[in-house]
Amino acid sequence: MTDSFALADAAAQLIQKRTTLRPQIALVLGSGLGGFADSLTGATRVPYSDIPAFPRSTAIGHAGQMVLGHAGSVPVAAMQGRVHLYEGYSPQEVTFPIRVFGRMGIRAVILTNAAGGINLSYSQGALVVIRDHINLQGANPLVGPNDDRFGVRFPDMTHSYAKEYRQIARDEAGNLGIPKHEGVYAGLLGPSYETPAEIEYLRRIGADLVGMSTVAEVIAARHIGIKVLAISCVTNMAAGILDQPLSHAEVMETGERVKTTFESLLRAILPRLSQDVKE
Ligand code: HPA
Q: Is 77 helix (H, G, I), strand (E, B) or coil?
């Protein structure tokens, strides 16, 4: 059996050899949202291919590097691109970067993603703070022997999306004049988009958003005690809501359109999270 704790440690050490920066906050930037990492100052870029055991993304719109730099005065580690279960990666591979963050001393992570909007009060381009999730990926990164160095066998998931971080995100959205939305994210395996019947089912079980990422990362982050804030960009209304087919091009276009707003929101949130992790 591979020792993922040792692998995560080795990866963290390689990253830390490249920079003197020791961020306590990490960002995972989803489809079309990777531009934020380009705006970091004093940045060190570490291609995933340089990091031992680090999975490389195959999805269009994902660059595949870790950028360590400052967002204003806040040091951060940002992942420009992530890997997904639908690419064929195992749940352990998908969550390896989160475990590396853990070994780097990261205390809080902001996960971003593109999602389909199920809640009819959302519109295309809306930014939605995730309140909770429903794991329908048919996978869990903690399956297998538990490594107590990461966390406990049966981690609690009650307060996975930190209440105070959700409040900060909503406050800062308000300050920026961005409509405040919060919702439940249903994580599916993909890569096919959902059928209209599946979307109707997801609505009935309480989902406001649907996507193909984030859930496994949140589970791994909570396992090791990293606090989580997750924000979805509603890149499209989910299947069957509008009488039109879904496409990856639409997802990317919407991501592109709202990225400036998304980046301003992240920039506003970061100093407050930074305050929290220092306490
Ligand atoms: N479904 C699943 N994942 C997605 C969607 C969607 O409609 N939009 C962006 N990611």
A: strand
